[in-house]
């Protein structure tokens, strides 16, 4: 009985997640900026290049450190 309940709750959660994410994926992309875009060629977006790696490398490093700690504790 307990196993079936967890399965149904997980299935309900997955369906709810899909129902919420479907309208997000169905939206059309925004229009390009009007100032200088396409007039003499495509211009770079204003603001320059923002770093994509912002906190990703920090999160990966923390994950590796946490995993290493767990492995070392398990060996003791």
Write the layout of secondary structure elements.
Elements: H1 2-25, H2 56-75
Describe this structure in a few short sentences.
This protein has a domain at 1-25. It is 58% helix and 0% strand.
Give a structural overview.
With 76 residues, this protein is mainly α. The chain has a domain at 1-25. It is built from 2 helices and no strands. The protein has helices spanning 2-25, 56-75. The two termini are 38 Å apart.
- Rounded to an integer, what's the Rg over CA atoms? 23 Å
What is the average per-residue confidence, as pLDDT, rounded to a whole number? 75
Binned strand content: under 5%
H-E order: HH
Largest sheet: none
Helix content: 55-70%
Q: What's the end-to-end separation, in Å?
A: 38 Å
As residue ranges, the low-confidence spans are: none
Question: How many beta-strand runs?
Answer: 0
The chain-level structural class is: mainly alpha
Tell me, briefly, the overall form: flat
**Number of contiguous helices:** 2
List keywords for this structure.
76 residues; flat; mainly alpha
